[in-house]
Write a structure and sequence with these properties.
With 81 residues, the protein is mainly alpha-helical. The chain has one domain. It has helices spanning 4-16, 21-33, 35-54, 68-79. Helix 1 packs across helix 2 (21-33). The longest helix has 20 residues, at 35-54.
């Protein structure tokens, strides 16, 4: 079985479906057996969904309080989805 550290290294590819079948199965098994990683995956998916919904109105201005680096990272991530 994978360790949590090993799962963390594969998590993004696991969620994006970019792993070979045997690695996908090992990640799936780890998530089923590890409550902490299952929670982490749930929160990661929630963060992605919130990020997508935050840009539902691309013409709205970004508040001044949002760091420029965060805006750039979110826009880059969105382009890659």
């Amino acid at each position: 079985m994978l360790t949590c550290k090993e799962f963390d290294e594969f998590m993004v590819d696991y969620l994006d479906g970019g792993l070979p079948i045997w690695q996908k199965y090992m990640c799936w098994l780890h998530v089923k057996m590890c409550r902490e990683c299952a929670y982490f995956v749930q929160q990661y998916r929630r963060a992605i969904a919130l990020e997508k919904s935050a840009f539902d109105c691309p013409d709205d201005a970004v508040p001044e309080s949002v760091p420029e680096e965060l805006v750039k990272a979110a826009l880059t991530r969105r382009k890659n989805m």
